[in-house]
Task: inverse folding
């Protein structure tokens, strides 16, 4: 029995380790490729014979490169939408969990039901809207569909319900206004949930592709994913630069992931258990 | 009433002031082109030169990726968000004219005699719609065979003697192809990339060299669904399927493969010279397209500039000046030197006939044909899919050609019917 | 004003901006798309006429759209079950081991948080035919014949499915693992004391208890695969969904109709068809699994 179990565990380790090699190999290969120059990239050797940082210099520092601008655009979009989502989603979650008023249930259901509407259908009217309002090629145009997240409302409502009502009533008796109760008392209490929401939202917006692809047609308004998708052009595919660009696009997320891994894992687990 | 009069007066004064302010401020015009590094850099310099000569005009260049260029045009110009002067592919002219994106060139500045003296005849044919001329190019291009001298030497071929006929081309391609132990192609003798220039080589060169023609004299009837057409396509497919000297998307695409020195020969346009010149370790030569039984053919094309519909007044004057400048002989000279495309003015081109590279493309131009596309992307895709159907699905050459001809005819008919 | 009324007013005040958002950016556009799917809305023509169901007839009569729908179903039918089965297996294995669990989980999640555009290009690079692609180099070293992957109309779709599975695997594994950890240990202990084998415990206790999570993941992944766009856009030559439309998904078709052909009315109609399919598949899964889950837990 004991032996059988140990064999089982060893086998589990072997399988898991093999699989994790499969999972990381593409990253490894991407990274290696990013250190090869235009001629080495076409050689069949695994490791670069003369590793070079030229690709990174070309992408990040060269005056012609649009990558720094795309990087900035992605950062602006991800940070602004995340800030907006944090504020509005927790406000909504708070209101829907701690207030009672006619129509509350309907409103909640309506908000949640928007999760079912596929983006593919919405982008066409969004596009018409941003043309009519002249939002094309602006940050607002890229960001507006993501300013509030229905999923975040759901998440925050769950969390808000754990806040004791007595605490809020005490603050009201002390004469605090409703908005300052929300900002000064409620928000700090749900920081862990906010952290999870923030990270997920940041990742989601950093990686978003379909809508930015449609709304941003001028290269200086591209986000990183859109820029990367347009990188291979008429003058051939510069694979060494594409791999470097991919590395650059991933780097901030991997850094974020290593710092906030607990929140991310918890966030993922939560979406499954509570969905 | 009195008050109304008073405010009316103020308004008039304000309007006059505003008009003067507008007059004093430089006229700003916008120029659009797709993103091709050497062209964008050159245009930036041309704009600087132009602004130095015309301090009252400011030009802004905006570029878009090639893939989304027409989309941007189609969505911007109708709502008045387009540029003043626009760069477009010659094959798109019917579409742009029909959609009303561009206006005829003003006859006062672009007189018939000026245009006749300044451009190759095929250019004038291509920009003429209902007797009006709609655009003026700086440069024209033709196709040529580009070969890698180092790979020729490795294969035991004379690096200075490119193939002259299609038979030689096929023979050389076989000798230049390399395979690994399992028979996978690892070096293409000849790049076969229909979604690059390959479809034009087939359409305007091979069909004719096998005795057929892509379209009838009006350009509106597909004519390649013939025995000669089948023979031409068969020859093209044999390179891919029988000789296996190359296949679509080998090493991503033809340009990548040639740059990586994994394709020994490629058929490409004069605009590629700038790209290849930038690679110092690449030894290459340019030759006229191989002939077949004495028949020579080539595909001429050009990118051209036009003035967008709705541009008027001062903007129009400035646009005309700018257009004149970027199609001037000086601009053509710079374009040739930096992009590699031939001057669109035959006299200026003639002055470079001793330059070995330029002369090859110029000779090609002298017997070139130029398809007028109604939907360049759509017509290209039809050829790409036809070749994939035969190569990947085993469809018979004659069947695939017939189906494609029917589809393309429908595309053309739909365009002219609407 | 009573206190209750005052608080309700506050609630409405807090809700005002978000409600405007949800109406203006979600429901409004949805209705707009529905209405406009009945018109000949195009950016290239100035017409805007009610044409009834013509757009629906046009897209459902377009062999390319039908092919795209068939491809979309293929993506979902192949992709979702594999990713669920694989991740369940991995989660069960992770649950067995004591050390390095967190480490493995991190590695599995990595693809999920990175931009799909970037990973699509990395895979496209690895999928290249000889002499370029690393996968074919490995095959060659092992003496296996080269694969065409993205260049073959028979393999391209599955090559893209594999990438999407690779991306979603970590997410599903993490959800499953969290679910497994909520299963009360005494329940399993009791069964073991009663003499149940590991296999019996797995199929009799663990899997039935994981049924709700499986259902949730099945629906989420089903939708994910039905809406597949980014990997197809980035992994097919010139973003065409080729070769020969063999990888074109419904979402890519909608994108092309709307933003390369500017037939927005027709694209809206196609998007409604996709929406209907997503709803139908989701409801079907709910029904199917509901029965199964209830039946097995009760018995």
Result:
């Amino acid at each position: 029995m004991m032996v059988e179990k140990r064999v089982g565990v060893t086998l589990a380790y072997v399988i898991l380790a093999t699989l994790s090699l499969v999972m990381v190999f593409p990253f490894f290969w991407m990274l290696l490729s990013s250190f090869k120059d235009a001629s080495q990239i076409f050689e069949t050797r695994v490791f670069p014979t003369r590793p070079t940082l030229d690709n990174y210099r070309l992408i990040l520092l060269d005056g012609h490169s649009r990558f720094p601008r795309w990087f900035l655009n992605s950062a602006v979009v991800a940070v602004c939408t995340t800030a907006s989502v944090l504020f509005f989603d927790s406000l909504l979650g708070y209101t829907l969990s701690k207030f009672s008023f006619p129509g509350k249930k309907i409103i909640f259901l309506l908000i949640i039901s928007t999760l079912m509407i596929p983006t593919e259908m919405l982008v066409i009217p969004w596009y018409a809207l941003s043309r009519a309002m002249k939002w094309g090629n602006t940050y607002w145009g890229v960001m507006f569909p993501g300013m509030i997240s229905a999923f975040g409302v759901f998440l925050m409502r769950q969390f808000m319900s754990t806040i004791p009502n007595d605490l809020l009533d005490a603050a009201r008796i002390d004469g605090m206004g409703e908005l300052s109760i929300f900002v000064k008392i409620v928000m700090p209490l749900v920081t862990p949930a906010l952290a999870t929401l923030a990270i997920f939202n940041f990742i989601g917006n950093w990686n978003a592709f379909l809508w930015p692809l449609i709304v941003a047609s001028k290269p200086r308004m591209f986000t990183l994913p859109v820029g990367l998708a347009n990188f291979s052009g008429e003058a051939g595919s510069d694979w060494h630069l594409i791999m470097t660009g991919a590395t650059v696009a991933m780097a901030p997320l991997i850094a974020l992931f290593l710092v906030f891994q607990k929140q991310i894992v918890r966030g993922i687990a939560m979406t499954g258990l509570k969905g | 009433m009195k008050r109304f009069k008073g405010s009316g007066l103020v308004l008039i004064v304000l309007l006059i002031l505003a008009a003067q302010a507008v007059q004093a401020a430089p006229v700003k015009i916008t120029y659009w082109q797709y993103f091709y590094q050497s062209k964008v850099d050159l245009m930036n310099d041309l704009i600087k030169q132009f602004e130095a000569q015309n301090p009252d005009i400011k030009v802004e260049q905006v570029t878009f990726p090639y893939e989304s260029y027409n989309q941007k045009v189609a969505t911007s110009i109708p709502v008045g968000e387009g540029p003043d002067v626009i760069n477009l592919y010659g094959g798109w002219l019917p579409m742009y004219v029909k959609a009303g994106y561009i206006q005829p060139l003003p006859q006062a500045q672009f007189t018939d005699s000026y245009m006749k003296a300044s451009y190759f005849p095929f250019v004038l044919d291509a920009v003429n719609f209902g007797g009006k001329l709609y655009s003026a190019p700086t440069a024209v291009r033709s196709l040529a065979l580009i070969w890698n001298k180092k790979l020729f030497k490795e294969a035991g071929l004379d690096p200075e003697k490119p193939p002259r006929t299609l038979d030689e081309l096929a023979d050389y391609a076989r000798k230049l192809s390399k395979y690994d132990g399992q028979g996978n192609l690892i070096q293409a003798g000849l790049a076969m990339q229909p979604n690059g220039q390959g479809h034009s080589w087939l359409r305007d060169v091979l069909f004719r060299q096998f005795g057929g023609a892509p379209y009838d004299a009006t350009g509106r009837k597909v004519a390649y669904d013939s025995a000669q057409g089948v023979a031409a396509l068969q020859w093209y497919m044999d390179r891919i399927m029988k000789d296996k000297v190359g296949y679509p998307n080998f090493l991503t695409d033809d340009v990548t493969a040639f740059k990586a020195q994994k394709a020994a020969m490629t058929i490409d346009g004069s605009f590629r010279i700038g790209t290849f010149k930038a690679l110092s370790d690449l030894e290459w030569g340019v030759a006229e397209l191989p002939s077949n039984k004495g028949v020579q053919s080539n595909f001429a094309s050009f990118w051209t500039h036009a003035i967008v519909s709705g541009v008027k007044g001062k903007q129009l004057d400035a646009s005309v000046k700018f257009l004149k400048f970027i199609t001037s002989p000086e601009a053509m000279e710079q374009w040739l030197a930096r992009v590699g495309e031939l001057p669109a003015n035959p006299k200026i081109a003639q002055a470079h006939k001793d330059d070995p590279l330029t002369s090859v493309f110029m000779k090609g131009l002298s017997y070139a044909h130029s398809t007028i596309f109604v939907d360049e992307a759509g017509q290209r895709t039809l050829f790409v899919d036809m070749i994939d159907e035969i190569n990947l699905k085993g469809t018979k050459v004659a069947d695939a050609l017939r189906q494609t001809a029917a589809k393309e005819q429908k595309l053309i008919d739909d365009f002219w019917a609407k | 004003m009573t206190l209750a009324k005052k608080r309700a007013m506050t609630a409405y005040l807090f809700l005002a901006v978000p409600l405007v958002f949800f109406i203006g950016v979600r429901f409004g556009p949805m209705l707009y798309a529905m209405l406009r799917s009945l018109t000949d809305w195009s950016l290239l023509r100035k017409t805007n006429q009610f044409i009834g169901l013509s757009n629906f007839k046009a897209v459902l009569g377009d062999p390319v759209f039908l092919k795209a729908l068939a491809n979309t179903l293929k993506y979902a039918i192949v992709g979702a079950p594999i990713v669920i089965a694989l991740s369940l297996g991995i989660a069960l294995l992770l649950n067995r081991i004591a050390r390095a669990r967190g480490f493995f989980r991190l590695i599995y999640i990595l693809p999920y948080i990175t931009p799909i555009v970037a990973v699509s290009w990395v895979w496209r690079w690895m999928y290249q035919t000889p002499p370029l692609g690393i996968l074919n180099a490995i095959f060659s070293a092992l003496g296996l014949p080269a694969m065409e992957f993205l260049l073959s109309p028979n393999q391209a779709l599955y090559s893209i499915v594999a990438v999407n599975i690779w991306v979603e695997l970590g997410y599903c594994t993490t959800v499953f693992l969290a679910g497994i950890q909520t299963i009360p240990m005494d329940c399993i202990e009791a069964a073991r004391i009663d003499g149940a084998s590991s296999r019996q415990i797995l199929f009799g206790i663990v899997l039935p208890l994981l049924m709700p999570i499986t259902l949730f993941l099945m629906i989420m992944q089903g939708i994910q695969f039905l809406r597949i766009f980014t990997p197809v856009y980035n992994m097919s030559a010139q973003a065409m969904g080729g070769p020969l439309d063999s990888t074109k998904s419904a979402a890519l078709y909608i994108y092309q109709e709307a933003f390369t052909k500017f037939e927005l009315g027709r694209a809206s109609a196609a998007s409604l068809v996709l929406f209907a399919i997503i709803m139908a598949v989701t409801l079907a899964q709910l029904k199917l699994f509901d029965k199964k889950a209830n039946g097995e837990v009760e018995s």
Remarks:
- The longest helix of chain B spans residues 2-24.
- Chain B touches chain A at residues 35-37, 62-68, 71-72, 75, 79, 81, 251-253, 255-256, 259-262, 275, 281 (CB under 8 Å).
